User: Fold this.
Amino acid sequence: MAIFHSPHILALTFGILGNILSIFVYLAPLPTFYRIWQKKSTEGFHALPYLVALFSSALWLYYAILKTNTFLLITINSFGCVLEFLYLIVFIAFAANPVRMLTIRIFAVINLGLLGFILLAIHFIPKRSNAVKVMGWICVAVSISVFAAPLSILRQVIKTKSVEFLPFSLSFFLTLSAVMWFAYGVFLKDMCIAIPNVVGFILGLLQMLLYAVYRKRKIMEEKLPEQVKSIAVVAVSEAQQK
Assistant:
């Protein structure tokens, strides 16, 4: 099997760990979509991260097929394509009509039009090694966009001072996954894999930091009404005694 042709045992090890952690990354939004399913509404959630993630997974899948001997990239990105597509189906099913139509239009432009154009253009590059290089750097650019996509959510967290739309599990596994795939890329001597995961690691840490800050603030706010209630009770008691 191609998996055993890895040029370095460390690349194989980190690749397997990267697959395992990436599965958790892909599964992390499940509670969000279960909530959407239950409430029959997408509420304040956005489809953009899932649209871009599907686009990225499809590109990495094609890159892995072109490069050969990258079985670990094929497995995880095949899984990612299927799961992200299912997420989008659920989102579109329960989104309000304007949001639904916008999501479908973006899907058509990015995941059908742009993806089809890129794959067709790469197909006509005469030398396979050149095609792999071009495809690799396209994947780098798109992957950085994927990691940057949650910035809109981070802005919402800062604006609302609420971590409701920032799942901690996603940020945690995203950060660990970025470390594993960075190491995989380094030992495989593939900078196209390593570079975007540096960005992923930094943004993952930023998300966890914001979660820690605003979750603590939420806990403090939840305790405040009880303190106010106690003060009010004391004030009433004193008034009655007078």
